[in-house]
Amino acid sequence: MRKRLMAGTAAIIIAGFLVAFSLAAKLVQDQYQLEFTRRLDAVLAMMESQESAIGEDPQGFAVKIGQELRLKNQEIRITVLDAGGNVIGDSAAQGQDSLPQENHLHRPEVQQARQGAVGYDTRKSDSTDREYYYAAVQVGDRYFLRAALPTEEMRHAVSMVWIYAMVAAAAGCVVVVPLTWLIFTRLSKPLKQLSDASLKLAAGDYTSRVEGIYRDEMGNLARTFNVMADNTQRAIDEMKSKQHQLEGVLQGMHDGVLAVDGDNVLLFLNDSAKQMLGVAALQTGKPFEGSLLVGKISAVINRALREGKIIEDSAVSAASPQGERIFTVYATPIQNNRTSAVLAVIADVTHISRLEQLRSEFVANVTHELKTPLTAIRGSIELLKSADRDQETRRYFYDVLDIEAERLHHLIDDMLVLSQIENARPDGMDQRCDVAREIRETAARLRPIAEKEHITLQLDLQDDICVACSPSRLQQMLGNLIENAIKYNQPHGSVKITAEKSRQMAVIRIQDTGIGIEEEHFNRLFERFYRVDTSRSRAIGGTGLGLSIVKHLAVLYGGEVSVESTPGKGSTFTVRLPLLLPEKTGT
Ligand code: ADP
Known about the structure:
Elements: H1 2-48, H2 51-56, H3 58-71, E1 77-82, E2 87-90, H4 108-114, E3 119-124, E4 131-139, E5 143-150, H5 152-202, H6 217-252, E6 256-261, E7 266-269, H7 271-277, H8 292-307, E8 311-320, E9 323-335, E10 340-348, H9 350-385, H10 391-423, E11 432-434, H11 435-452, E12 456-461, E13 466-468, H12 471-487, E14 494-502, E15 505-512, H13 534-539, H14 546-556, E16 560-566, E17 570-578, H15 582-585
Parallel strand pairs: 12-14
Antiparallel strand pairs: 1-2, 1-5, 3-4, 4-5, 6-7, 6-10, 8-9, 9-10, 11-13, 14-15, 15-17, 16-17
Helix pairs in contact: 1-5, 5-6, 9-10, 10-14, 11-12, 12-14
């Protein structure tokens, strides 16, 4: 723009000078012509007054007049023509012989003189090859007198005018163009600042402002721009902060949250979603694809997009890196005028589903376990009600009632214990629990039962084994295992109980010579109500909860329980509990 302005200014200056100087040149030329006319008129008038002298010697007359004029510093050529237009005298000719031969009658000034007026013309002379300003008059019927002034002087003056014009125009340009440059720079500086600041703002630099504001219209514009930029920056900052807040909330959510546009491209994805889906390549701006699970969720999202309503699908399940998982997907379409997208919330309901399954299994099992003794009790009562029962039969049914009531009592006791353990935190963690002592006490309690079954109890215990456990709960664990070892033993069999320390753990083994367990049952053995031989277990009053209680307690105290068994030969149940650290054993 600056260059165009400079060129424009120079053009205006040059054009202005050209117009002015062409007028001046014309004026100079006119002025010269007027002066030439006046001088030639005076010479012609002077020659007319000497008409009589012409006839005697026209050439001499012309030369004489020419000389007289030269003496007065006037270089005027004098020509005398006869009535036919032939040159009979010429001050520029050397003699009569060298007079121009061509006829001058048709020269423009002579033609005009023939009309009776003074004739004028400017042209180049054929004889002298110079340009002259001619003036001619007719004197009587016999002669034409002509005076001519060379126009070189006039042409020189006009040329000088033009040279001055050029010099003046050049000087004007030299002065005006840089001056214009300076003025323009001064005027355009705030405009440039404003333009630069606007460009930066448009490019996303919201801190861009116009500095050094002038006190004029441009200043007002700059101030308005700055206010506008302030407002924009504030609005953008507010928007960003809200966006960060929202992203923070979404990122912090336990559920997976993701947004996908109509072209199946991810717009947002929180860390939980990334973890749940387990596809490392998933990121915003990339297509939402990469695994079977992602495909299933994508199908739910597409349905929401197609039907334009919230879709909930709780049956989405897939093998994720964490194993078989069950997810619930809520897909909500987000629609505005231009774009359509779907916000999906993915909840991992695997744990809840498993709990739900366990709960219903537990209810079914408990109902079943309660039903059996209750049926026996009701049957016995029915039979007792009839009066024709002898004493012996009555006693038998009383025994049945006693046994079934005892079974119910055991069942309810075991269920209560299990429920307490499930809801409990380890109580007596700081309690020093002497493993050997608890084993001896439990064995002593169960020895009568063992003797009844002709089973020997052997103890091989290392002393000074302490665990952080409630003694009653340790006894509960040991009791269940020793009872099982007696219950599922062979007649005249034995149960060996050992306790030792190994790798910071107290290791308690209950080894029997009983019926043993097939390996296929190992996995489920510690589940609630799981029995290997249901009828035998029931017959000997088992509830199916004993091992489940042992496992829960072992886990509660940071330990574990495991089984090894050979069918027909016997089983070994091993309980491992963390040893109490030496510095704590003194408490
Ligand atoms: P129950 O009250 O039926 O004994 P448990 O939970 O204590 O219930 O045991 C579950 C099942 O494991 C038993 O029904 C039995 O079949 C089997 N079992 C437990 N201990 C032994 C063992 N020492 N020898 C063989 N089988 C056993």
